Amino acid sequence: MSGGRRAAVVRTATMYEDIRCEIDRGIATITIDRPEVYDAFRRQTILELNAALRDVTADDGVYVVVLTGAGDGFCAGADVNDMPDWHEEMTKEDYAGYLWGVQNVVRQLRGMNEPSIAAVGGPAIGAGCDFALACDVRVVGHDAVLREGFVRIGLVPGDGGGWLLPRLIGESKAKEYLLTGRDITPEDAVELGLAVEIADDPLAAARAFAEEIRDLPATAVRYTNELVDPQRSFEDYCERAIEYQWACVNDAEHHEAAAAFREKREPDYDRDYV
């Protein structure tokens, strides 16, 4: 592959305070960079996550997105040291605006055509768990833990977990975790199908998986990712599949992939990774 032979170039998409967003050979890695609090978020973090996701989705040079946390964390939910007294300091409208921003991280992860991979090396708690669940695929480390712990502090899963988890592991099993706030261990995550593997270095494993996806025909990957939707009716699926397949049939990378298959060689896509 021509893109795979080019010299690696790492670029920082935008300078942020609470996160890092780096693009390396077609893979965008977004890192929540607050290791002193296990990558728990504050308002600034949420603003930056939303901005970074908008940027990478609009970037034609990005084929896969990896979401992770710095140090020993992934995202331990909201930073309790940065939380106001909601009842005393905010109106319902204020709170709705704040929560919408958190939900929008999940919304953007769910809505992007580019495949997303969560590299979970540590605690993914509350909304942090929902950020991981919103990704298309999860790789977990030995110290990872996913926890929808909202009920334990008298709250509901307001960031998407009550919608996401039943669709990933089934309603009954999801309610076990949602109604108790029990931990989902790395072994549980793999057994339930939430994670594809337990890795010593989840970020390295996630990037290896991202490279495998990146090096396939991009149009087919993006449309396949969009087609996989458990809420879509079969008839809607079939109608969309006709449109998407026709686009793929007319795509140069399909032509090259088919030629390479016939000629028993590796495909050589014309890409300039940055």
UniProtKB/TrEMBL annotation:
InterPro entries: ClpP/crotonase-like_dom_sf (IPR029045), Enoyl-CoA_hydra/iso (IPR001753). It holds the Pfam family ECH_1. This is Enoyl-CoA hydratase/isomerase family protein. It comes from Halomarina halobia.
